[in-house]
Structure formats: structure tokens, C-alpha cells
Amino acid sequence: MMPVMDGFALLTQLKSHPEWCQLPVVLLTARTAQQDKLQGTEYGSR
User: What is the pLDDT of residues 18-39, one digit of tens each?
Assistant: First the structure.
């Protein structure tokens, strides 16, 4: 886990910034819940 924010919060900030929104991201997580997997997939389709 990241100390200040989680990866979903970081990804949200990246995707909302005009210069960084097209940056491809590989999401590596220790979370194994189905809900977390779906949330990561949804961020990838934005």
C-alpha cells in the first residue's frame, strides 16, 4: 500500500490532468477483491 494515497486516487489524479490523461498505466495491486479488480478495469476504460 502507498503511504499517502492509494493507487486508485493516484490514477484518478493522472487521468483528470490534461497533460497526463493519455499516459498508459499498468496497475499493480495487492488488493484481490473482485470489486477492486472491477474498479481498476473501469479506470482503464476512461
Answer: 998 888 888 787 777 888 888 8
